[in-house]
Specification:
Blueprint (H helix, E strand, L loop, with lengths): L4 E12 L2 E12 L3 E5 L6 H8 L7 E6 L2 E2 L4 H7 E3 L12 H12 L5 H7 L15 H12 L6 E5 L7 H16 L3 E6 L2 H7 L2 E6 L2 E6 L1 H10 L13 H9 L7
Parallel strand pairs: 3-8, 3-9, 6-7, 7-8
Antiparallel strand pairs: 1-2, 1-4, 4-5, 9-10
Helix pairs in contact: 3-4
The structure holds adenosine-5'-triphosphate (ATP).
The site of adenosine-5'-triphosphate has 12 residues, from strand 2 and helix 1.
């Protein structure tokens, strides 16, 4: 069955003055997948994401999101996507429950805060302020806010940066649950292990260009069948596995 495309990026270019941050990028995101934009710092991931989100102007190229062009239908796109807010957007005097009420109101819809908080295991923090949350809780709350308008697609920009191993793994499970419930997820990361376990397909971006797009398994199989061998025998577990085994997999940030 042919996969349905929900995002099409065609020949995207973004220049900041003389500097070309994005150089002729093209890719598609399929409905219902977790799609990863991978690359080192400065590769152009955030710039690409913000242009798709209609938050930043492009220099040239074409983009469609759920059938709408960023050039002519930015408002329709905004209604269909969920974007993580920067921390500064969370009014300091409101608690989590009040913030969800506020954001629902801005979207013109009614959402029960407890229902949203339950999706991200934060019901016991309903009366807490954002600044009182741990790093993992903050990420979960901001993911909850992306879901308020029942979006078709959510965008997560490096959602696990700075989190401990338990919080990261649990956030991966949460993101997979969101995909399994029918929402397409676009994520940026520079953690390759994260992309390998989380993403259905990845695009590697380097120096403002796409240097490869495929599933993690296909990428690895192709590399291995080309004769590539790791210099050392791969260990069957790593130190992070040992740590998780010793300390358990529960949320540690409650
Ligand atoms: N507003 C801006 N003005 C000028 N240059 C910018 C601007 N925003 C980003 N850049 C530059 O564009 C390049 C791509 O930045 P971008 O933030 O998209 O990269 P990234 O892949 O998301 O990296 P990171 O992982 O560090 O966030 C970088 O060299 C950055 O310095």
């Amino acid at each position: 069955m042919k996969k349905q495309s929900v995002i099409t990026v065609k020949n995207l270019v973004k220049n900041y003055g003389d500097f070309a941050a994005v150089k002729d990028i093209s890719f598609e995101v399929y409905e219902g997948e977790i799609f990863g934009l991978l690359g080192p710092n400065g590769a152009g991931k955030t710039t690409t994401l913000e242009i798709i989100e209609t938050l930043r102007d492009k220099t040239s190229g074409e983009i469609w999101v759920d059938g709408f062009s960023v050039d002519t239908d930015a408002d329709s796109i905004k209604q269909r996507i969920g974007v993580q807010l920067q921390a500064a957007g969370y009014y300091p005097n409101l608690n989590l429950s009040e913030l969800i009420d506020l954001f629902s109101g801005l979207y013109g819809i009614t959402k029960t805060p407890m229902e949203m908080l339950q999706k991200v295991a934060l019901t016991d923090k309903a009366k807490a302020k954002y600044k009182q949350l741990s790093g993992g809780q903050k990420q979960r709350f901001s993911i909850a806010t992306t879901l308020i308008n029942n979006p078709r697609i959510i965008f997560l920009d490096e959602p696990t940066t700075g989190l401990d191993p338990q919080a990261r793994r649990n956030l991966w499970d949460l993101i997979k649950e969101i995909r399994d419930a029918g929402t397409t997820v676009v994520i940026t990361t520079h953690y390759m292990d994260e992309a390998e376990v989380l993403c259905d397909r990845v695009a590697f971006i380097d120096g403002g260009k796409v240097v490869g797009i495929d599933t993690p398994d296909n990428f690895i199989d192709k590399l291995v069948s080309s004769g590539f061998e790791r210099p050392k025998q791969v260990k069957l577990a790593n130190l992070e596995d040992v740590f998780i085994n010793l300390t358990g997999k529960n949320w540690r940030d409650e």
